Amino acid sequence: MIFKTQTMQEIFSLLEERLQSNETICFDVLDPDRCIGFYAGEKLEVAGEVYRCRSLRTWMELAQLLGCIMKVPQKCEEALVRLTFERITDHSFHIDNITQKKEKYGSSSHFARIHKMEEAAFLYYYRQALQNITLEKRRRILDLGVNRGDEFEVIRNMVAPQHYRKMELIGIDHSQSAIESAEARFPENNVTFRTHDINTLEALALGRFDLLISIGTLQSPGIRFKPFLMELVQHHLQEDAALILGFPNSRWIGGEMIYGAKAPNYAMSEMSLLFNDVIFAKKYLQQKKYRVTITGKEYIFLTATRIAPKSRKRIL
Question: According to CATH, where is 3.40.50.150 located in the chain?
């Protein structure tokens, strides 16, 4: 099967049909290296044949939209490469049946295999968020849903050792095994981990913080996001605090980070609940005099920093 001048609509429909009865499909396309500088769908003549140009990224995104991974392209002719799409296995922590719910994200769980910081699309926007809140200014940092401490690892690597030692980092998670893994990774005296339900955060009497981080935790089913966020801002943050909140817009399936939030009762990606929470957080924090930015793709990062009050001119 060779795609030369077919439109993406034609290709999409044909591959969708083939995948109904095949776990793997192969087809030949114009070598994406020849398409550099061309927009998708532009036509290019090579050795007397006309092809539509498409980048490697376009083919990879098509594979994911069809529920597949794309294997490494193989050269088959001078102008062509052979692409192989293979269905992604359904194995995922999202559907794991865990008897101890607190260990759904524990050190022996499927979730423990996931390393978000090894995904460039996650790490880039998280690092950008840390830069936006001027990480060097922060002294007391709280991470809710810290798991094994991946967010702290990036912080440790981003700041100078002497500055890092002056920070106080506290991570909280309801999984005992995840906390034990975090403690093994961070033996430093300035880092503390607690196994606790964040719904009763006030019971720990931790004081106030100048940076709050929470990635994919505040949208958990057992947390009432809106009142909980307001509680955090009003009672657990310092006057000049900053926040980094990560909202999942993806699922982890078969070794892949798949774009798109999955809502109950929808077969497709449906992002109403995601954006409802993001927009609420943005408006609420703006009312509290925070400057808010929203970035990201597979994870939406909301970053908020306090707006410094304008100095009043003295009236003589």
Answer: 94-306
> Taking Cα atoms as reference points, which of 256, 249, 172, 184 lies closest to residue 214?
172
pTM for the whole thing?
A: 0.89
Who contacts 40 (Cβ-Cβ below 8 Å, separation ≥6)?
8, 52, 53, 54, 55, 58
Q: What is the pLDDT of residues 220-273, one digit of tens each?
A: 888 999 999 999 999 999 999 999 999 999 989 888 999 988 777 777 788 888
The DSSP-derived string for the chain is -B-SS--HHHHHHHHHHHTTT-SEEEEEEE-GGGGTTPPTT-EEEETTEEEE---HHHHHHHHHHTTEEEPPPEE-SSSEEEEEEEEPP---GGG---SSGGGTTSTTSGGGG--GGGSHHHHHHHHHHHHHTTGGG--EEEEET-TTTHHHHHHHHHS-HHHHHH-EEEEEES-HHHHHHHHHH---TTEEEEE--GGGGGGG----EEEEEEES-TTSTTS-HHHHHHHHHHHSEEEEEEEEEEEE-EEEETTEEEES-B-TT-SSB--HHHHHHHHHHHHHHHHTTEEEEEEESSEEEEEEEEPPPPPPPPP-
**Confidence band (pLDDT; 50, 70, 90) for 316?**
very low
Q: Residues 179, 249: contact at Cβ < 8 Å?
A: no
**Residue corresponding to tokens 């774009």:** 259
Please give the single-letter amino acid code of residue 149: G
Q: Which residue has the tokens 């020849």?
A: 34
* 94-306 under CATH 3.40.50.150, yes or no: yes
pLDDT tens-place string over residues 107-119: 788 888 889 999 9
